[in-house]
Structures are given as structure tokens and as C-alpha cells.
Amino acid sequence: MPETSGLVEPLEPLPQTGEDHSLWRGEVHVTTVATLYKKIRFYTRENLGAGDIHLPPEELDTEAFVLTLSEASAAELGLAGGDRGSAWRAVGSLLRRVAPLFVRCQPADLGLSSHVRSPHFGCPALFLYDRVQGGVGLSELLFRGQRELLNAALEVVERCDCEAGCPACVGPREEVGPLGKETARRLLEHLSRGVLPTDVPVAAQDDAPVEAPA
What φ, ψ does residue 2 adopt, rounded to 5°? Predict the structure, then answer.
């Protein structure tokens, strides 16, 4: 069972507008490298050990739905410093789990890359990308249904009875930190109040990434 690290890069420059948070859809290049090999016992999933591996990277040109958050809002919502960045990753993981309910796909059909400070945007960014070469339209469905997606993720967090995170919502406390669930909830509340991307010209989506400021 390999563990991987990934890098997602937009294939074309994306305009960086939007004072608070922005939604994007565009082409990306995904590079995935297997860095560790775990030995897992069948049925029980018990971890029997691990070792380093060196394999060539896997590369994929596909489409992605991207969500970015301004640095000012990130600091205000608690993403600055410490292990708070784990909450941003938890938000992305939850969106990835909820998304198949809206785009009618398997969870494995979507990939996730999260950046507390994206090298392209210079701010926190989440990439939900189609794991099929060239894409099959999942990013467009996510882009158009982003409000329902964010509201559904927020509902999962609010209805979960755990205190600080569990596998049913944002992930175990050991992964997201003691303030992970609260930070994720505040992020989702903030993001779900964004502007719907209904005024974006459809023709603009043919050859270039589309941005909807929020």
C-alpha cells in the first residue's frame, strides 16, 4: 500500500481576483510520487511496518475545481500558525467525501490537493481534481453546485456529536488537532456564504479557466 505526495499546477495562468475567497475551474497538471510503502494485514488493516520506496512520478493532465481563501480571512478564521493547517486539509477531505452525492461518481474518482499557502495563488487553496486523464466534467459539476456542496459539508460537521473531530466528520482529533473541528466549522460557515457563480459567461469556459469571485 503506497503513500503518495502530490503537486497540482494550473496549466494556464489564472487571474487572481476576489477579495475574500474565489472559485475556479481550469486545467491542471498533477504529479504524484509514491514515497512510502506500508505493509497492511488483510481484513484487520493492521499496520505491520513501512519502508521507503523510489518510483518515478505519475503525471496527469486533467481538470480541477479550485477554492481559494484570502490570507486576511485565513488569519481571521484561525488558519495561521501551529497545526491549524490540518483543519484546511480536513475541509478538503470532507468536501471530497460529500461530492459524490452531487456529481454521481465514486470517491476514488476525485483527487485532493490542499495548500495552506499555494505556490500559484499565494494563499490557502483546495484542488478537487478529476482523476481521469483529460477530465470527464466532474470539475464543472462541482463548480456549478459549489453552494450545495459547501452546505452539505457544513451540515455533516454541525450534526456530528463528537467534540473535537472524528472519522465521521473532519477526521480524528490526532489528525486535525484539538481545534480542528471548530476551525473547519468556521471555515465552512464562512465559505458557504459566498456568491453563487451564476453570472459567469458559458462561452468563457471553452478555452480558459473560469473564475467566480466571492
Answer: -80, 145
* Residues ≥6 apart with Cβ < 8 Å to 43: none
Q: Which of 28, 111, 121 is nearest to 74 (CA)?
A: 121
Least confident of 95-99, 139-143, 176-180, 208-212: 208-212
User: Could you give the count of Cα atoms lying within 13 Å of 69 in the half-sphere of its Cβ?
Assistant: 30
Q: Is the pLDDT of residue 62 over 50?
A: yes
CATH 3.30.1360 fits 14-30+61-193, yes or no: yes
The label of the residue with cell 503525471 reads 59
- Whether 13 shows a pLDDT value over 50: the answer reads no
Least confident of 17-26, 42-51, 60-69, 95-104: 17-26
Backbone angles phi, psi at 120, to 5 degrees: -90, -45
Place of cell 483529460: 134
Cell of 34: 509514491
> In which element (H, E) is residue 35 found?
strand 21-40
pLDDT 10s digits, 132-170: 998 899 988 998 888 899 999 999 999 999 988 899 999
With CA atoms as reference, report the closest residue to 192 among 154, 159, 165.
Answer: 154
Can you say whether the dihedral through the CA atoms of 170, 116, 67, 147 is positive or negative? positive
Segments making up each domain of the chain, as ranges: 14-30+61-193
